[in-house]
Amino acid sequence: MVTLSNFKFLIVALATLGSVAAASDSSEDLKTIEIAAADGSAKATFIPFGATLTSFWVKDKNGELRDVLLGFDDTSLYKSDNKGHPYFGPIVGRYANRIRNGTFTIPQSKNASGPGKKYYVPHTEGNNTLHGGKVGYDRRDYSYRVLHNSPSSVTFSMIDPAGTEGFPGQVNTTVIYALHAKATFAMTIIAKASEDTPIMLSGHHYWNLEAYKESEDLNNHHVQIQSSNYVVTNPQLIPNGQLASVEGNPMDFRTAKSLGRSIPGTALAAYCGADCVGFDNCWVFDDVSSSERTKPVFSAWSTNSGIKFDLYTNQRALQIYSCNGIYNATNPIPRKKSHGGPDKNYVKHSCLVVEAEDIIDGINNPEFGVNQIYGPDRPDRWHGIYKFSTVDVMKINSSDF
Questions:
Q1: For residue 93, how many C-alpha atoms fall within 13 Å in the half-sphere facing its CB?
Q2: What ranges make up the beta strands (E) of 38-180?
Q3: Does residue 15 carry a pLDDT above 70?
């Protein structure tokens, strides 16, 4: 059984066993790499550009494989903005999510007010920075290794030079993906910095657990989150340093309920920002200190396909985005063939992004009590295990409808 505690030993093994190495250059960065679980329970494809997951196939309740991950069939679109910049499936960093005003100090201070040296990252979303600047980790070339005797795993690596996007220090990042028996998807990211610098990494994966076969909404997607509090943000989704209770509002997923049917209730409070209906929020796990969790912190399943996954992670928080802005009428994103495309498009509220990460913009909110500055003696280690399974019947409380 793969657990968070024994996964770190797997990381060492993957990094040291003999492998086939290929440096990603202009001819390699869109090369498709496939891995599969030895028992045939799941398979996945990747490209080195952004260390991007491009498909994820898992069995539904009838034993048929479905690709439950959104993306592009035309892999060149991962490198351009021809269909926008949705961050389909890559690693995001050097600092995931948003940085208020694109500024921070080392050591951390409230809204970069000091003391400490002040740094500037390019603005990419109004006056703020999203996912690491103009050329974040999702738009970098990674080298990769596939083990000779283990086509069930792939390792990506990338060097982020000091000063890139305004961040101090060089960061060497390793990303390891592995598929194990019983559709267990294990993922780790290790980032080592040459000097003190903020680091917050995550995978940015869009899921539809029906593969668009039964519906184009999330009404039959049910979610449970082990969280009693979420991060309060302004209309630009920038935290103010406060947490709020989920009690009595649409943010409460402590008891499983329909994600899609919860979306209309967000309209009044605009949880996902100005003039937005849906979710684009950060939940803080009730158990924020444990890296050896024995229970999932997040679960999602479709009552149509029967596909379910449980997430185990060492991260403190989880960002959920309900694809509120994925559809652009003048430049829609075509679905993959595995999702009924390309004549059909991805539409809003038809998918969910699940980002396990630290508390967002913690570098500008010391009151969160998290240290997001890493250096030579303190590498950042991100772990996540996604355990896929199937369910035939789930008892959903009638209040969810």
A1: 32
A2: 42-47, 52-59, 65-67, 91-92, 98-99, 103-106, 117-120, 129-130, 143-147, 150-160, 171-180
A3: no
Answer whether 163's CB lies under 8 Å from 171's CB.
no
Question: Active-site residue 204, yes or no?
Answer: yes
Across 21-41, average pLDDT: 80
Could you confirm whether 148 is annotated as catalytic? no
**pLDDT, tens digit, for every residue of 234-250?**
999 999 999 999 999 99
Widest CA span in the chain: 59
pTM beyond 0.70: the answer is: yes
Catalytic annotation, pick one of 210, 216, 355, 357: 355
* C-beta neighbour count of 164 within 10 angstroms: 19
What type of residue is 16? T
Please name each of the domains of the chain with its CATH number: 4-400 (2.70.98.10)
Q: How distant, in Å, are the alpha carbons of 83, 232, 320 from that of 58?
A: 27, 35, 21
Burial annotation 174-195 (CB, 10 A radius, 16+ → b, else e):
bbbbbbbeebbbbbbbbbbbee
Cα–chain center distance at 113: 29
- Joined together, the tokens standing for residue 243 give 């947490």
Q: How confident is the model at residue 29 (pLDDT cuts 50, 70, 90)?
A: very high
Q: What is the mean pLDDT of residues 190-198?
A: 98
Catalytic option among 204, 205, 222, 339: 204
